[in-house]
Structures are given as structure tokens and as C-alpha cells.
């Protein structure tokens, strides 16, 4: 049986990455694994998950949140946590300080040619009944 250099007893090594999100505390993280394929003395195949040279439990069996030790963890394709963090960062940027422009008309209606920023209340006001 041939072995993979640096992985004693392994017949194949596959690199996999996963994103994780704890459904209890919201902690998110990503982890890469070396998945070593082995054959035991009886000819049965098994795999070992390795992180930084240490054999670890399969992340697919019962992942544990490193933040709160809960086991209600969602497993996603790699890159999901990073993309969510980037989106949150873009969404929560503080606008540059500067003067605030007020509407030119007294009733707050936009001037002709000016864009109006719609709010949900603008759209729902037609459904509201006035008390008589």
C-alpha cells in the first residue's frame, strides 16, 4: 500500500474548508482540514480529519462552537463567514460628516427632477383609515 509523504499510513489526502455559524450565540468561523484516507488492518477504509498536524473529530458529526460550547452549529460552504463579515462591514459604515440638505419646499415634497427616497410608510399610507 502506498503512503502519502508527511501523512503516515494515508493512502490519499484531501483538503476541505468549511464555514460554521453558531445558532445560539451567532459566532462564525472558518476552518480548513486535511482529510486523510486510511485502510485499517481488516481492509476497511476510514478517514481522519487533521488540523495543524493534530487529529480532530469530524466537523460534520457534532461541531462545537468555540465561543459558547453549544452544538447547534450550521455548516456552510467555505467563504460564507468572510463574505457575511464583509457585507456587515459595508452596511454599517458611518457616512462622512458634512452638511445635511433640507428639502427646498415647505411641505417636504421633492423639487421637480429631484429623486425621492421612499419609505415603507409612504407606500402604506393609502391603506390607513383616518379616524372619524
Short recap of the structure:
The chain has 2 helices and 5 strands; from the N terminus they run E-E-E-E-E-H-H. It is of the alpha+beta class and about 130 residues long. The longest helix has 12 residues, at about 80-90.
Please describe the topology of this protein.
Elements: E1 12-22, E2 28-39, E3 45-51, E4 54-56, E5 73-76, H1 80-91, H2 120-124
Antiparallel strand pairs: 1-2, 1-5, 2-3, 3-4
Question: Notable features of this structure?
Answer:
132 residues; alpha+beta; five-stranded antiparallel sheet; 2 helices; elongated
Model description:
It contains 2 helices and 5 strands. It has a domain at 12-88. Strand 1 (12-22) and strand 2 (28-39) form a beta hairpin. The protein has 132 residues and is α+β, with helices and mostly antiparallel strands.
Amino acid at each position: 500500500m502506498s503512503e502519502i509523504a508527511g501523512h503516515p499510513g494515508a493512502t490519499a489526502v484531501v483538503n476541505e474548508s468549511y464555514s460554521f455559524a453558531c445558532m445560539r450565540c451567532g459566532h462564525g468561523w472558518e476552518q480548513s482540514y486535511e482529510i486523510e484516507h486510511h485502510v485499517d488492518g481488516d481492509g476497511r477504509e476510514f478517514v481522519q480529519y487533521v488540523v495543524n498536524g493534530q487529529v480532530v473529530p469530524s466537523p460534520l458529526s457534532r461541531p462545537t462552537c468555540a465561543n459558547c460550547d453549544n452544538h447547534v452549529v450550521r455548516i456552510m460552504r467555505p467563504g460564507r463567514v468572510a463574505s457575511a463579515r464583509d457585507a456587515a462591514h459595508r452596511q454599517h459604515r458611518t457616512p462622512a460628516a458634512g452638511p445635511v440638505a433640507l428639502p427646498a419646499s415647505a411641505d417636504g415634497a421633492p423639487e421637480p427632477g429631484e429623486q425621492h427616497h421612499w419609505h415603507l410608510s409612504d407606500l402604506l399610507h393609502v391603506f390607513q383609515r383616518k379616524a372619524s
